[in-house]
Amino acid sequence: MARNIGSHYTVHRVLGRGSAGTVWLGDGPDGPVAIKLLREDLAADRDLAERFAHERHALLGLEHPNIVGVRDLIIADSGDTPDGQEVALVMDLVRGPDLRRHLERERRLAPREAVAITAAVANGLAVAHAAGIVHRDVKPENILLDTPEGGRVALLTDFGVAKLIDEPRHGGKGGVVGTPDYLAPEIVEGLPPRAAVDIYALVTVLYELLAGFTPFGGGHPGAVLRRQVTEKAAELPGIPRELWELIQQCLAKAPASRLRAAELASRLRELLPSLEGLPPLDIGDPEEDAAPEPVEAEEPIAALAAAGGGGGGAGRVAVPLVRGTAPDSERETHTRMRVPDAEELAGGAHGTARTIRTAGERRAGSARNAAAARRRRRLAVTAAALVCAAALGGWLLFSGGDSSDGGLGEPAGGPPRADVQLSQPA
Ligand SMILES: Nc1ncnc2c1ncn2[C@@H]1O[C@H](COP(=O)(O)OP(=O)(O)OP(=O)(O)O)[C@@H](O)[C@H]1O
């Protein structure tokens, strides 16, 4: 049934759900639009709504063919609850799937396609960075593929949302907000996110498009964070040398060593002719590997939740962006964490660097983005996610270790950090 949003828009049906809200197909004065309605508990937070309004100018001014345009920001009283309000972001409607779905279908992309998508997104980032806007949550879910007149255009969406949700309410230091697989090491180390974090995340996406899995993902989110800081990405077999060098440069631990967005875009575009006709890389399919180990894949997560320990689960833990309810989305998404200290980073949780092998060769390790593996784990993960939030204690503090959850959820709880076993068992 159609529902009015503000005085100019109507929504008809759900297009997708994320941890911060639901995206609807809608109509506005200029035709069809996509409308992201913030979750009720977030919308009820007056501070957050104010921050939205404050960012209005920057978000509405961001115009580029590779950025999903924001057309309007609506903060309106909701008829549903006496003092409730609706907060909505009106965006250009994108017809195609998001990159996560495309990748799940294809498993791995041919190098030319992967590089062309990445170059397009880098173009969009260059414009945002020039305007002083850092995305902070670049990942396949936030890259939409439009299909105008048979062509295909990659567009980056969700600008500013992570920042709005992350901003500490009481002036305290924010925790880590983001999706562990794509988090730049400097964020893990507690430094303020600058443009280079988007480059790191985007090139992580490029690696994932080529390999079918991210360079440092898999297992306990703490282990993923530790790898982001300490490990080197494994080279993908058969990857063209120049492309690999570019990837390595942009996955540098030192932000200053990474390319800027405009340069990344142009270097990637230069590579395109040489990649013409190359098939997807011949890398073992993680799904095949994941099949024989369902018990190992599920048990550590459940056990972790029950025991409150820091064991190494094989899946990515689905944790809502903010505390409160379970995530709207079924998809694995943000984790909000306290910044780990140096000792934790050195000791680390379970998990070692992945061994990359060609197809046919067996690989010990997790199947990061294997849809089947995720489906198998989803029940355990979803059920365990909220328990995990408490059980992981200091390591996964939703409130960022202070009151900086913006009052959006319940008070921080869970055992203190000392209860969490982060060291490698003997
Ligand atoms: N402008 C748009 N046009 C068409 N569909 C969209 C648009 N924006 C988002 N969607 C759809 O809605 C889904 C949910 O988007 P949303 O940004 O809320 O969540 P997410 O990015 O998947 O997850 P999270 O917000 O938790 O990181 C997207 O995956 C996409 O399928």
UniProtKB/TrEMBL annotation:
Segments of skewed composition (Gly residues): 403-412
UniProt-recorded Gene Ontology molecular function terms: protein serine/threonine kinase activity
EC number per UniProt: 2.7.11.1
Pfam families in UniProt: Pkinase (PF00069)
Lineage: superkingdom: Bacteria
Gene3D superfamilies registered for this protein in UniProt: Phosphorylase Kinase, domain 1, Transferase(Phosphotransferase) domain 1
Bias-annotated ranges (Acidic residues): 284-295
Protein name (Swiss-Prot/TrEMBL): non-specific serine/threonine protein kinase
Source species: Streptomyces millisiae
